[in-house]
Every structure is written in structure tokens, then in C-alpha cells.
Write a structure and sequence with these properties.
The protein is of the alpha/beta class. The chain has 18 helices and seven strands. The longest helix is centred in the N-terminal third of the chain and has 21 residues.
Length: 375
């Protein structure tokens, strides 16, 4: 039974669905600031949000797929509060709960729910981004630069669904300034519509102009920026055992490859001893190719935004375009490959990397290619 059928069979009833997604029951023990959440704990709030969502006028006009994505986001939108909630100066706060919650959902989905309920990669990531940005319609005026932030968020977030999620999130709570905040959400819809990024992403002249717009955090999205890049660095990204080496062998074999694993073996450095010397050696090799304008492959896991940014910035400084290739296979496939590997990865280590995983977004580099689910 796929995820849409599960939700429909339970008639989108949050309490019944907690028997399927048992992690949600843990929200009963997570308190909230009574000033903003007079209804009580996170579980109560989430139940109210899901109930309100299905009563919104726009709900009935959504496709089955859109309902599935939106309802999953509603159920899990505050799951990050389980990790983030704390008390400071006698006030309950949950800093960064949207960011951590989005990662928690990706981890749960990848390791448990994707295969069981046929949740695709694209559906999972749509839900992840709705969770990540569920507070944006209330906070967008605080972002700097605001227009740039909205256009970037729209690149990977469905604003009409985000609008409905934010509206249900507000109506599914008890607070004194509800009407005022509802007006802010309506302003978000109106303003992003005027900008041309509510119902669709904005259009850029070409990939390079788009890339430069998101890199510089300034300018107009309609600017035409001359692409002076003459060679390419292919940056691999993906969990261990996902198939990066095989992809390189099949598609990029004509290019020199800088492999952190190969360097580690040559230097006889254990993964437990850190990666400082390994990365530095790799960067020196990369600089040799970059100075000569030679295209090459940078082969490492590169599972976090910060790691990818450092490599990308180095390559761009030499006038290279960076094409990021993200590879993912199902969790069960990783475990099976690990069993047959000569030097297997401890499962706790592999799971820790999954917890840290940040799937690349196409605003990060010149181009991002997703190779998902292939053997």
C-alpha cells in the first residue's frame, strides 16, 4: 500500500495515523510556549493543524499527490521540536526546529518509510522543504534581502502548499494575535504573487545567470551574466556505497579523478584519524588541474552543504563551472552492499552520516544532477 492509500484509508485522521507513524506519539511529551500555543503540547497542536488543514476551502481542489505531500508536511512540521525545545529565562523556546525537523523527516523516510509506503525521492524532498520553510510565510519580511530569499526558497518549495501549511499551522493553535498573523500570511501570498514567484519559479536567462544570482545574493533575476567558464569540475555527492565510483567509471572515465578514499589509502590514514591531511592533499591536486584549466572529477561523499561549498568556491575561483552529481540508492541496498564490502562500514557510522545528509539543491552550483534509485 502506497503512502497516498494509507492516508486515504485513515481518512487523514492524525490520531489514527500515529499508529502508522509511531514517532509522532513522542510529541505528547514536548511542551510549547503558552503565549503562542495555548492549546498545549506539540502533539495536540499537530492534531489541530491536521484537522484544520482538511477543512480549508482549497483542500478539496488539490490533487491526491498534493494532498499527500501537504498532509505529510503538516504531520511532521514540528517534529524537530522534540530535539530543540528547551527553557531559557523561564521561557520555552524551540530554536531551529524547522531545519532539524526537515532532516529528521528525511532520515525517517529514507531509513524506514520510503520503501514501506512507496514514497519517492521527489515526494520526500518536497515534504522536507515544506517542513524546512513552514515558518517563512510569517517571517518573510525579516529576511534580508527579502526578494532574493523568496525567489531562492521558491526554487525548491511549492508556495501554494506552503501558504496552506502556514495557514493551518496558525489556525491550529490558540494565541491572541491570530488575526494579525493571518494577515501576514495573506500578505506573503500577495507579495510573492506580485513578484511572479508564487505559482511558479522565476525564469533566468540561462544556468550561469541563475547560478550567479544565488551566489551573490544581489542583483536582479533578469540580469544576463556572461558565462566565461571554459572547463568543468564534476563534484560527486552521496552516501558511501551509493555507487559514485561506478558512475564515474561508466560516465566520466575519460577525466582525471581526485578521490579522497584513494588518497587516504595511499597515505595510510584511517577514517578514525580525521580527514584534514587527506582533504589538503586533494586540494593541492585540484589546484594543479585548475591552474591548467583541466576538467576533472572530485570524488567524495560531500553530504553537507558546507563541505560542498568549500570545494565549489575553490573551483569557481579558478574560473571553473561545477556540476554536482548526487547519487542515492535505497537504504536496504546500502546495507546489502555493505555486507559484501571487503571493509564494511559500521552501521552506527553509516546511520550517523544519513542523519547529517543534506541533499544538494540546484541553487548551490552551476548544475545539479540527481541519479536516484539506480543499481
Amino acid at each position: 500500500m502506497n503512502i497516498t492509500e494509507v492516508l486515504e484509508q485513515k481518512n487523514y485522521c492524525f490520531e489514527e495515523l500515529t499508529e502508522v507513524f509511531i514517532e509522532l506519539k513522542e510529541l505528547k511529551n514536548v511542551e510549547q510556549n503558552p503565549v503562542w500555543h495555548g492549546e498545549g503540547d506539540v502533539f495536540t497542536h499537530t492534531s489541530m493543524v491536521c484537522d484544520v488543514l482538511c477543512k480549508l476551502n482549497q483542500w478539496s481542489s488539490l490533487s491526491r499527490e498534493k494532498r499527500t505531500i501537504l498532509f505529510l508536511a503538516a504531520m511532521f512540521h514540528d517534529i524537530g521540536k522534540k530535539l530543540c525545545t528547551k527553557t531559557e529565562d523561564e521561557t520555552i523556546i524551540s530554536p531551529n526546529h524547522a531545519v532539524k525537523g526537515s532532516r529528521m523527516f528525511r532520515e525517517l523516510c529514507y531509513m524506514k518509510y520510503s520503501q514501506e509506503y512507496e514514497i519517492s525521492f521527489s515526494m520526500r524532498e518536497e515534504v522536507v522543504n515544506l517542513i524546512r520553510f513552514h515558518g517563512l510565510p510569517l517571517l518573510y519580511m525579516e529576511k534580508e534581502p527579502m526578494d532574493h530569499y523568496l525567489i531562492k526558497a521558491r526554487e525548491f518549495t511549492d508556495f501554494p502548499l506552503l501558504y496552506l501549511l502556514a495557514k493551518a499551522d496558525l489556525l491550529g493553535r490558540i494565541c491572541e494575535d491570530q488575526e494579525e498573523k493571518l494577515a501576514v500570511i495573506e500578505y506573503f501570498k500577495e507579495y510573492s504573487t506580485e513578484m511572479g514567484c508564487y505559482n511558479q519559479q522565476v525564469s533566468f536567462y540561462d544556468d550561469y545567470s541563475r547560478f550567479q544570482y544565488f551566489q551573490k545574493n544581489e542583483g536582479w533575476y533578469g540580469d544576463v551574466i556572461y558565462d566565461a567558464t571554459e572547463f568543468t569540475v564534476y563534484m560527486m555527492s552521496g552516501l558511501p556505497l551509493s555507487g559514485k565510483d561506478t558512475y564515474i567509471e561508466n560516465h566520466l572515465s575519460e577525466l582525471p579523478v581526485i578521490s579522497l578514499d584513494t588518497i587516504r589509502e595511499k597515505l595510510k590514514i584511517s577514517p578514525r584519524d580525521g580527514s584534514g591531511e587527506v582533504v589538503q592533499t586533494a586540494k593541492e591536486q585540484a589546484k594543479e588541474y585548475l591552474r591548467k584549466g583541466i576538467s576533472f572529477v572530485w570524488n567524495a561523499t560531500n553530504i553537507t552543504v558546507d563541505t560542498r561549498r568549500k570545494v565549489s568556491s575553490l573551483c569557481q575561483a579558478y574560473g571553473s563551472r561545477v556540476i554536482l552529481i548526487y547519487i542515492e540508492v535505497p537504504y536496504e541496498e546500502l546495507l546489502n552492499r555493505n555486507k559484501t564490502r571487503e571493509r564494511s562500514i559500521p552501521i552506527p557510522v553509516l546511520n550517523h552520516m544519513i542523519r547529517k545528509l543534506e541533499v544538494p539543491k540546484h541553487t548551490e552550483t552551476y548544475e545539479v544532477r540527481y541519479i536516484v534509485g539506480e543499481s
